[in-house]
Amino acid sequence: MAVSVGEPILLIDPSQNYRPDYKDVEEYRIYNNNQDDEMQKMIYETYRQMHSKQSVDFVRDRMSHWTQFNTIELPIMEALDKLNNFVDESDPDISLPNLVHAFQTAEGIRKAHPDLDWFHLTGLIHDLGKVMAIYGEPQWAVVGDTFPVGCAYGD
């Protein structure tokens, strides 16, 4: 069998498109109400709904619903795969599907802590609860920073 030798084939690494942008620490976690920035408007609205609609009664109702364990049953990898169709509306630092974020997190932890395999797994599954949004929960109920309900906000 003859093999032809010609010009080298340029292969582009598609993972370059999914690697996080490297920014200075001060550039992360920027939240403002800039109405000219569509992402900031979406983030603001997600948190506005979260802070106005989450209550002790709401949490009790959702706990009662989800702890019946009759909505969905998935192996972990299928649940993670569902996150490939989910982009977190509350995160100003990433607009990629949450599956990408899960692997980025796990890989970052693996690099920083190679001997802590349990920690790698924790990074991979830390956002699995967001799959509830695919099954009817509004994003404001499952994404973003979490706060205790029934308590006044701190300063």
TrEMBL record:
Keywords: Cytoplasm, Iron, Metal-binding, Oxidoreductase. It is found in: Cytoplasm. Fe cation binds at H101, H126, D127. InterPro entries: Inositol_oxygenase. The keyword Cytoplasm applies. It comes from Oppiella nova. It catalyses: myo-inositol + O2 = D-glucuronate + H2O + H(+). GO terms for biological process: inositol catabolic process. Its main location: cytoplasm. Pathway: Polyol metabolism; myo-inositol degradation into D-glucuronate; D-glucuronate from myo-inositol: step 1/1. Its cofactor is Fe cation. One of its GO terms (cellular component) is cytoplasm. This is Inositol oxygenase. Signal peptide: none annotated. Belongs to the myo-inositol oxygenase family.
